[in-house]
Amino acid sequence: MSDEAQLEKLAKQIRACTKCELHRSRKNAVPGEGPAHAEIMFIGEGPGAREDEQGRPFVGASGKFLDQLLEQAGVTRADVWITNVVKCRPPGNRAPMPDEAATCKPFLEREIAIVQPAVIVVLGNTAMKNLLDTREGITRMRGRFLDYKGIKVMPTFHPAYLLRDPSKKRETWEDLKKVRDYLDSHP
Ligand code: SF4
């Protein structure tokens, strides 16, 4: 089966999933999206209201802001796989509970295994701590490459946080620029 077909099969499994309580309040599950062999994978926390409505990741205000950041760092959305820790919207946009994140994690692991990105960018604390065994928060960890099973991982701020505190935008742009520079030097 091709990688595209595997990702489509995975998306169908996600849309039908009822393994955690989040399925009860969702309108639509939100599988990851992008080209099957994207160089960069972005991992956010979970779908918001717009994403829940449309069943697509990062289509709301945070998504539009992320698009701007990507463009400024020389990355286009078409080059990236974009996904979340949990694929169903937590009620009221709360952070996913640890058990919800743990239940959903096999889907994320499968996405990573199929896409095999050169770099993963984790957006915010929830995504970083879900993927990596870290105690420090995103403010201390951002901006330097970490490792997940041999894949470079860059932690940076979540776009929703930047919308609340635009003063951190420059640091995020610098983090994304480091990702672009790494990819340019490892073609
Ligand atoms: Fe399934 Fe993940 Fe949705 Fe929970 S959040 S119902 S584990 S797809």
Tell me about this structure.
The chain is of the alpha/beta class and 187 residues long. Strand 4 and strand 5 (151-156) form a beta hairpin. The mean pLDDT is 94. A five-stranded mixed β-sheet has the order 2-1-3-5-4, sandwiched between helices. It contains eight helices and five strands. It starts with a helix and ends with a helix. It is globular. The chain has helices spanning 3-16, 49-54, 61-72, 98-115, 125-131, 138-141, 159-164, 169-185, and strands at residues 40-44, 80-84, 119-123, 146-148, 151-156. The structure holds iron/sulfur cluster. Iron/sulfur cluster (SF4) is lined by residues 14, 17-20, 22-23, 29, 86-88, 100, 103-104.
Distance between the termini: 27 Å
Oligomer: single chain
**Overall mean pLDDT:** 94
Taking the sheet with the most strands, its summary is: 5 strands, mixed
Low-confidence stretches: none
* Broad shape: globular
Give the SSE string: HEHHEHEHHEEHH
Number of strands: 5
Structural class: alpha/beta
Q: Percent range for helical residues? A: 40-55%
- How much strand? 5-15%
Count of discrete alpha- or pi-helical segments spanning 4 or more residues: 8
The radius of gyration over CA amounts to: 15 Å
- Ligands in the structure? iron/sulfur cluster
Largest sheet, spatial ordering of strands: 2-1-3-5-4
